[in-house]
Design goal:
Number of strands: 7
Structural class: alpha+beta
CATH topology of one domain: Alpha-Beta Plaits
Number of helices: 12
Shape: globular
Largest sheet: 4 strands, antiparallel
Organism: Bordetella genomosp. 9
InterPro entries: PaaX-like_central (IPR048846), PaaX-like_N (IPR012906), PaaX_C (IPR013225), PaaX_trns_reg (IPR011965), WH-like_DNA-bd_sf (IPR036388)
Protein name: Phenylacetic acid degradation operon negative regulatory protein PaaX
Strand content: 5-15%
Pfam family, one: PaaX_M
Radius of gyration: 22 Å
Order of helices and strands: HHEHHEEHEHEEHEHHHHH
Length: 326
């Protein structure tokens, strides 16, 4: 067991050295993945203790939480000389909005319907407004099929409407649904996928993820399930795993399988992420409870929906789903 734990520590350290995470971004990962299911509140000292082993020192973390408060992600509360931070209503909405893309179990059926956002050439649309709209839509996975026309095969219409509302341009763009006309003999909309989205670049990012994290699965397969993984090592590995996965998958437009190559590496990457996540989960939760759970008034029981992430641990081999047991 000691050898397997040491291998996990070395792999985690190597991943951190190869691509050191930004303090604010890693803080968002921890808040959404680890703290939100327990109520979303944590003392600053506990947050420092959780992130210090991941290379985030106290000065960087203080700066990060200050910025997250300023950006509306967090709320700060003073309790004497201590500071408590909790997810704001906006932070909770942001976390909930991203969760399906991060933790989805896999490809869902597609009904062939597209959502289009069309920005007419005429009107009072300024360059700054169009630029901000394009950034927001591309972040949600929309592709540009023509000048001023953005399309996505899965995106919810209310997401596009919310973006227009936030940018205060609801009266300057159209939100439509569309389907290919049966029997028209015209070019199907999905044929534009390679030019609307950088699928080749995204595929290489997924292959890189597989190369990075396949050794972690090998290390965990060498763990003795009777003793389990040391909780601090499991928590650090879980945070690095989810941080890399979140950064990758939130840039994936989430196209239906019918629009992707048959050997799409994103499927294998999600399967690997799921296995690793549940191998690490129970032990990492013990470490989280040891630190943040010392004050149960601000750290609640794990929310049931957290156990449904990636489709839940059901279906994994017993040695995988019980990896963190003691």
């Amino acid at each position: 067991m000691a050898a397997a734990a040491s291998a996990l520590d070395r792999l985690t350290a190597r991943l951190l050295r190869a691509d050191p995470p930004r303090a604010k971004s890693l803080c968002v990962t921890l808040l959404g993945d680890a703290l939100q299911p327990h109520g979303g509140a944590i003392w600053l000292g506990d947050l420092i203790a959780l992130l210090l082993p991941l290379g985030i020192n106290e000065r960087l973390l203080r700066t990060s939480v200050f910025r997250l408060v300023a950006e509306g992600w967090l709320q700060a509360e003073r309790h004497g000389r201590r500071s408590l931070y909790r997810l704001s209503a906006q932070g909770a909405r942001n976390t909930a909005h991203a969760a399906p893309r991060i933790y989805g179990a896999g490809d869902a059926p597609w009904d062939g319907q597209w959502t289009l956002v069309v920005v007419p050439r005429s009107g009072n649309n300024g360059l700054a407004e169009r630029t901000e709209l394009r950034k927001a839509l591309e972040w949600e996975g929309y592709g540009v099929v023509a000048p001023g026309v953005f399309a996505h095969p899965r995106a919810r219409q209310d997401t596009a409407s919310s973006i227009l509302e936030t940018l205060r341009i609801r009266d300057k763009a159209l939100v439509l649904t569309a389907r290919d006309l049966p029997g028209a003999g015209a070019l199907p909309l999905q044929a534009l996928a390679p030019q609307c989205w950088d699928l080749a670049g995204l595929a290489e990012q997924y292959r890189h993820f597989l190369r990075q994290f396949a050794p972690m699965e090998n290390a965990l397969d060498g763990a003795d399930t009777r003793d389990g993984i040391p909780p601090p090592a499991a928590f650090a590995a879980r945070m690095v795993l989810l941080h890399r996965w979140r950064r990758l998958v939130l840039h994936d437009p989430g196209l239906p399988a019918s629009m992707l190559p048959a050997d799409w590496p994103g499927h294998a990457a999600r399967t690997l992420c799921r296995r690793l996540y549940w191998m690490l989960f129970q032990a990492s939760e013990r470490h989280l409870a040891d630190i943040a759970g010392a004050d149960p008034s601000h750290f609640g029981p794990l929310a049931p929906e957290a156990r449904r992430r990636f489709g839940g641990p059901d279906g994994l081999k017993p040695s995988e789903s019980a990896r963190g047991n003691t």
